[in-house]
């Protein structure tokens, strides 16, 4: 029997690993406790997993029940997730950044029986809305001294600490061991594994139903595409496990027997990379942009000889990259020059990642082409992937030997991806993993997909499901793209498309990415639908502003949302004009406002994956946007 046929449920992955890849004494998870990195073996993890399963069964949890988690990445997430998965329950994770109202909605929509809360802040959120959630029977704080928070509330649901869950579960394991094994064997590939609620850029979040088969096949077929992930690798986990991208990486790590180290926070990520020395890091484009910006600033700020060496090194790296991308090898002189560049510049940048990083996987948004090329010049391969929550998520991922920056790689095995004309619905091309040809190029249209990755549907929303999965089982992603040199290339989201007053279609993402090349700019939000020209809200980088104008933190704490200082506006205008030259005239920013602080999740302006909530932002700043169109467009 093939591995793909054996591994069709989520709990089968870890059982296969301890049976065929590593002994139970091998390190599985790594996390920091106070000032020390602590290693957890497979055996230790399985003991706690089984204990939690026993406790859940004793509570009366049965196959198909939904259990929620609002907790940061760490061993406790893994224990609870694996415990509920192996008894056939459903993981209904909640982003820690969501509001109390959103948490209440998800708990009630999913009918969650339990929720584990990771820290006092999240616990207090749950306590405030718990009595509005009639299905909730247990709240499980995963930290000490939780009583001082819960004693202030009269609750319908019981409260029990996570440590007590494990303690009680260990006493019950003997009684429930056969029941746990029977429950694990009774799980069908078509059974629901998790509900992942979409981030809701266009309205009420929808619970995406992903089956065990969706998730296991996505992991198995992704590693066919990237077969160099091994049992000797170490992933550093920091993207939220409540998001499908990090969840898939976690499944792949378990499948291959790789170690998982958990970063303490985004703020401590750089420090944690040096401490844990990961070989693989999965991230979002914005993080890579920040690493790029800091490296460029560090390498060029001193001026003089140091800057000349830095720029020469990257020019040398670019020459080597282009030769290698053409399938050739650099000559002896260029090899020698590259060795010097590696020693003087590249190695120092790589040391900050821990020195063992083999490659990074970027997902959750489009990676600007220049950012991918920068890391390629440095000698760190960026593999870009593409998918949605509704596609489990991976549809395509870059092959390591065929990196084409600006594309998201080859279609993974077992699915079909097509490009469809948005207006006529004509399908231009259907591509699979096996039909791949390096010269395949198509027109632009909506990306649609069918196969093992497509969700079961939206929870309790058959009408919404029917709107995105057609009668031929094609899931309509709402993304615009094409095939380029055989790889899938993403242009933008269909719903983001702006149509100006003259009927020109403008996709904001590639335009915004052009302006984001400026080291002065952190965020760009384009507007201009049904308008005569493109305008924007610009968020400058805080560090750059502080250095250029000698600003302190008080400047960023002022109540005025927008900056009117003409000197700052003119400073940003320099780069707006510079990068506008790379765009068609109808795509260029004609007027803009400078926002003091970034768009944020706390303000409801962006999703947990850093995507702008267009309708929210346009409504919130409608008056300021109208001001951008008060005058006539500038003449080119």
UniProtKB/TrEMBL annotation:
Give the matching InterPro entries: AMP-bd_C_sf, AMP-binding_CS, AMP-dep_synth/lig_dom, ANL_N_sf
Key words, A-Z: ATP-binding, Ligase, Nucleotide-binding
Single annotated GO MF: long-chain fatty acid-CoA ligase activity
What this protein catalyses is: a long-chain fatty acid + ATP + CoA = a long-chain fatty acyl-CoA + AMP + diphosphate
In terms of CDD domains, this protein maps to: VL_LC_FACS_like (cd05907)
Q: Name one Pfam family in it.
A: AMP-binding
**Domain AMP-dependent synthetase/ligase: where?**
21-459
Q: Which GO terms describe its cellular component?
A: membrane
The entry's protein name is Long-chain fatty acid--CoA ligase
């Amino acid at each position: 029997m093939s591995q793909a046929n054996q591994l069709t449920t989520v709990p089968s992955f870890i059982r296969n690993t301890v049976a065929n890849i590593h002994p139970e004494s091998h390190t599985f998870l790594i996390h920091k406790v106070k000032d020390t990195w602590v290693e957890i073996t497979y055996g230790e993890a399985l003991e706690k997993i089984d204990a939690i399963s026993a406790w859940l069964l004793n509570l009366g949890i049965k196959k198909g029940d939904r259990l929620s988690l609002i907790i940061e990445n760490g061993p406790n997430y893994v224990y609870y997730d694996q415990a509920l998965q192996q008894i056939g329950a459903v993981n209904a994770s909640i982003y820690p950044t969501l509001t109390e109202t959103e948490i209440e909605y998800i708990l009630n929509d999913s009918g969650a029986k339990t929720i584990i809360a990771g820290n006092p802040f999240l616990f207090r959120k749950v306590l405030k809305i718990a009595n509005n959630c009639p299905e909730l029977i247990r709240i499980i704080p995963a930290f000490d001294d939780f009583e001082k928070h819960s004693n202030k509330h009269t609750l319908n649901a019981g409260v029990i600490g996570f440590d007590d869950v494990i303690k009680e579960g260990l006493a019950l394991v003997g009684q429930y061991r056969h029941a746990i094994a029977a429950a694990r064997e009774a799980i069908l590939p078509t059974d629901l594994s998790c509900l992942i609620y979409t981030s809701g850029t266009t309205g009420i979040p929808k619970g995406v139903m992903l089956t065990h088969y969706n998730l296991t096949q996505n992991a198995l077929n992704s590693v066919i595409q990237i077969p160099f992930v091994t049992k000797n690798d170490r992933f550093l986990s920091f993207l939220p496990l409540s998001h499908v991208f990090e969840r898939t990486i976690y499944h792949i790590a378990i499948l291959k027997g790789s170690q998982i180290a958990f970063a303490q926070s985004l703020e401590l990520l750089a420090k944690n990379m040096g401490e844990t020395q990961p070989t693989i890091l999965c991230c979002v484009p914005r993080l890579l942009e920040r690493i790029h910006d800091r490296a460029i600033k560090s390498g060029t700020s001193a001026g003089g000889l140091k800057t000349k060496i830095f720029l020469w090194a990257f020019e040398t790296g670019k020459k080597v990259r282009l030769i290698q991308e053409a399938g050739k090898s650099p000559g002896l002189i260029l090899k020698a020059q590259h060795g010097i560049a590696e020693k003087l510049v590249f190695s120092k940048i790589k040391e900050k990642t821990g020195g063992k990083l083999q490659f990074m996987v970027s997902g959750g948004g489009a990676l600007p082409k220049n950012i991918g090329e920068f890391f390629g010049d440095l000698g760190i391969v960026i593999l870009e992937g593409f998918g949605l929550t509704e596609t489990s998520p991976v549809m395509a991922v870059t092959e390591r030997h065929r990196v084409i920056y600006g594309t998201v790689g080859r279609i993974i095995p077992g699915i079909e991806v097509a490009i469809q004309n948005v207006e006529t619905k004509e399908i231009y091309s259907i591509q699979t993993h096996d039909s791949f040809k390096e010269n395949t190029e198509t027109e632009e249209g909506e990306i649609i997909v069918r196969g093992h990755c497509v969700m079961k549907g939206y929870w309790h929303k058959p009408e919404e499901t029917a709107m995105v999965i057609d009668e031929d089982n094609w899931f309509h992603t709402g993304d615009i793209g094409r095939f380029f040199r055989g790889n899938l290339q993403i242009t933008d989201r269909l719903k983001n498309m702006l149509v100006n007053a003259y009927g020109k279609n403008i996709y904001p993402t590639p335009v915004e990415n052009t302006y984001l090349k400026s080291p002065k700019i952190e965020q760009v939000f384009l507007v201009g639908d049904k308008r005569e020209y493109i305008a924007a809200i610009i968020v400058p980088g805080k560090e750059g502003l502080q250095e250029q104008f000698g600003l302190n933190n008080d400047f960023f704490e002022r109540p005025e949302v927008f900056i009117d200082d003409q000197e700052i506006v003119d400073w940003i205008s320099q780069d707006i004009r510079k990068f506008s030259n790379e765009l068609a005239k109808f795509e260029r920013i004609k007027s803009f406002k400078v926002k003091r602080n970034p768009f944020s999740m706390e303000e409801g302006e962006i999703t947990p994956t850093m995507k702008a909530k267009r309708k929210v932002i346009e409504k919130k700043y409608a008056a300021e946007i109208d001001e951008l169109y008060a005058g006539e467009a500038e003449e080119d």
